[in-house]
Structure formats: C-alpha cells, structure tokens
Write a structure and sequence with these properties.
Elements: H1 2-54, H2 63-67, E1 76-77, E2 80-81, H3 94-111, H4 118-125, H5 127-133, E3 153-154, H6 160-168, H7 170-181, E4 193-196, E5 203-210, E6 213-214, H8 216-221, H9 223-229, E7 244-249, E8 254-258, E9 265-273, E10 278-282, E11 285-287, E12 294-297, E13 303-307, E14 316-324, H10 330-339
Antiparallel strand pairs: 1-2, 3-12, 4-5, 5-6, 5-7, 7-14, 8-13, 9-12, 9-14, 10-11, 10-13
Helix pairs in contact: 3-4, 3-10
Length: 344
C-alpha cells in the first residue's frame, strides 16, 4: 500500500514538473512574441521619424518670392521697388498663386486633418476675387483670410498677455537698442541694419526675425529681447508673415502709403523713443506712439508713418513684432504656419 502511494506521489511530482516546465516555456514564448512585436513597432517608429525629419519642404513658394511685390509697368508700386521675377508670387497671376497655396493646404490636410480648415479652404479657392474686390482702404497683397473682424486699430485686450509682457520689458529692449545705435556714429550703416525705401529721410530696421526666419547674428546682439520673443504667446515666428525688428525713423522721414501682405496678423509697435511730430496713420485714422506703450494695428489697411520733428528731437524708434489676429483659431494658425512656411 505504501509503495503504491509512493509511486503515485512520484508520478504526480513528475506531472507537476512537466506542467510547470510547459507553463514557463509558454510564458517565454509569449514574452518573445511580445518583444518581437514591440521591436518591430519601434523600428517602424524610428523609420517614420527619420523619414519625416529628413523630408524637405517642396519649393513651391520661396520666402523672397512670397514677400516681393507685384510690379506695374515702371516696376514701382506704393513708392517701393518690386521685383520682376516670374517666380514672384506678387508678380504672378492669382490663379497660379492659388494653385500653389491649395497644393500646400492639401499636403497639410493629408498629413494632419481637414478639421477646422473651412475658412482657409474658402479663402484660397476665392483668393483672386477677395483681393480684387476689396475696398481700397484694405487690400492685403498676398493672402486674405475671409470672415475676420476688420478694424484699423486693435485695443490692448486683443492680445493682453503679450502687450503687458512687452511693456514690462520696455527698459530691457531700450537698453539693447541704445547699445546698437551707438554704432551709427562710427559708420554710415552698421552691420545688421537694413535701409528701407522712403521718399525722404531715413528708415532703418534691425531684424531679429525676418519673414519667419531668425537672424542669428542680430539675435546675439540683442539676447534678452530675442529671449522675450519666446515668451510671447501669439508671436508669429514660423511663417513668412512673421517679423520682429527695431524700426527707426530719422527726422524728416515719410513712409509712402502701402498695404501689408495679409490680414491674419496684428502688427504691434512698442514705443522706445517717440518725439513729438511723429504719427502713424492706418485706414485714414491717425495715432501717436507713446514710450513704453504698445500700439496695435492691422497693416493690411492702407497705412503710412512720418517723423516731422527736428534733428534735435532725435529718431522715432519702435520695437515691432507681428502677432496673430485674435480671431484666427489655433488649428488655422498651425495650418497657415505649414502653408506659408519659409522656403515652401
């Protein structure tokens, strides 16, 4: 009896051992299968990141082409010299521009989503009609987004966070400008400054961001101002409609009336030096700058600026930065950054 029980017990142990071994092997097989699946997914993810990262934007619209102006027979419009290149967006027919923009929109939608693209889609499909039938007071020269509230000037509440941040940084920006401006006494045009067309006087700009592209050499000369741009919630920094610069008007300067390229942005001027006799006129409405205060306006309206002060008054100086129009939705901003990306 005891031997039979011992044999049965031995058989049970062998069976238990076999069951345990089979279970362990099954777990190992399962783990190996799971690890293989994870490894395959990881390889696919790395390949996708590499593919997207190395993909270069197609050169349908270059920055320089996009922001150059259309020319008339003399090559002049609104007092500015415009290019004669057939590749220039402003110099081509709107039908060609619309096709390029629509291609960019389709590429964006395939990669991300059509959700929220109704207004942009409508604007691109009917861009020629919008630009040709706009009243003369507001005629953006490149892209018009329909159904945006329109007014020459905006209140501080339109982008309150960024306005208050800029005004708190007034002294910081002013100090960096004054260090830059000392170089004007040593040469006619210091490195980094740009001369703009004007019928009289002198209009100079020092860009940190020019048409969506950072200017590293200039940013290194104004490091605190450049860092400030990263703290602004609505700064346009990733498409050709975005700029940030110091703008200087010498006494006696008049800027010819002209239109900006689009209505999707608000142009913000922070007054750094604002002598008397200086005015900004947008849509026929005059305003004066004030030191340490922001002035917000839609530069797709016909606008001009002038400095009628004397040489003793010194220059008019503002820090200019382009902010998103408050009624452009987040999804639209992302799409417009893609469509109008520098170099696209």
């Amino acid at each position: 009896m005891s031997l039979d029980w011992l044999a049965a017990w031995s058989w049970s142990l062998d069976g238990l051992r076999d069951c345990i071994a089979t279970g362990i092997q099954s777990v190992r097989d399962c783990d190996a299968s799971a690890l293989g699946t994870v490894a395959c997914l990881l390889v696919l993810f790395v390949w996708y990141c590499y593919h997207v990262g190395r993909e270069q934007p197609r050169p349908y619209i270059s920055v320089n082409a996009l922001m150059q102006g259309s020319s008339d027979a003399s090559g002049l419009q609104n007092g500015f010299v415009y290019c004669q290149s057939p590749a220039c967006v402003r110099c081509t027919h709107h039908e060609g521009l619309n096709q390029k923009l629509y291609h960019n929109l389709q590429e964006y939608a395939k990669r991300y989503s059509w959700s929220g693209m109704g207004r942009i889609h409508k604007g691109i499909r009917e861009q020629g009609r919008y630009l040709n039938t706009r009243p003369s007071i507001q005629k953006p020269e490149v892209f018009f987004l329909p159904d945006l509230p329109t007014t020459p000037y905006f209140s501080r509440d339109a982008q309150r966070h960024d306005v208050e941040l800029l005004e708190r940084s007034f002294q910081t920006i002013l100090c960096e400008f004054e260090r830059l401006y000392k170089a004007f006494s040593n040469c006619s045009l210091p490195q980094g400054w740009k001369v703009n067309s004007s019928p009289s006087g002198g209009w100079f700009t020092f860009y940190l961001i020019n048409q969506g592209v950072c200017v590293p050499r200039n940013c290194r000369k104004c490091p605190r101002t450049y860092r400030l741009l990263g703290s602004l919630r609505t700064c346009i920094g990733n498409n050709v409609f975005g700029n940030a610069c110091i703008s200087v008007l010498s006494p006696g300067t008049v800027i010819t009336e002209h239109y900006g390229p689009t209505n999707i942005r608000i142009r913000c001027h922070l007054g750094l030096k604002t002598p008397s006799g200086c005015e900004l006129v947008v849509g026929g409405e005059p305003q004066c700058w004030a030191e340490g205060r922001c002035l917000l306006f839609d530069d797709s309206f016909l606008h001009t600026a002038f400095h009628e002060g004397s040489a003793e008054d010194g220059p008019r100086v503002v820090f200019m930065v382009d902010l998103w129009h408050p009624n452009v939705a987040a999804a639209e901003r992302q799409a417009l950054d893609f469509i109008f990306a520098p170099g696209r």
